[in-house]
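User: Fold this; tokens only.

Assistant: Input:
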Amino acid sequence: MSLELNNVTLTYPDGDGVVTALDRVSVDVAPGELTAVVGPSGSGKSSLLAVAATLIRPDSGRVVVGGVETLGLRPRELTELRLNSVGIVFQQPNLISSLTVVEQLMVTEHMRARSLRRARESAMETLAAVGLAGKEHRRPHQLSGGERQRVNIARALSGRPSTLLVDEPTAALDHERGAAIIDLVSEATRTFEVATLLVTHDTEYLGAAGRVLEMRDGRLSVLERT
């Protein structure tokens, strides 16, 4: 498995008590598999992604990314793991306004100590894969909302991660563009053979997922689709 959470519990302090954000959660996602997670606001979906991304250490349980047991890693080792093995698609693209599309990806590639030539080649290849060939030299203000989200996805895939974590990618898009983005995530999951965990509130897009889970009160269960 590229991503495995086993019996994970996460709590936060809340006044004199604690809130259980994740309650003995277990999920595994294989390479090339898209798993969607739905649930009401405050149910624990964001906490699930944060733990899977190794941004938050849970109270207990196991988190395995790309075959690596993460809970015993030091901060520097976790940073390196995230850089090389975890791609994150944020709800908002947060692109750098002064950079072109290809430069948005090359910044991340530079962090991986790739040469300028190799970084550009990799960036151009990834942009073509997400349907942005010919738009490499545009800046964010010259792109539509859907195109900016495509750059966001390309940036997450640029390091060829084993795990892709996607947070509400259709929140700021209309139905047509939202559907296209979900189709792209599904296609990229297969093309790049990543283990994709997608959090979404749009239940109409769930047909693209191989499996759908529901989060309620910090607990995860299989959602039966009709």
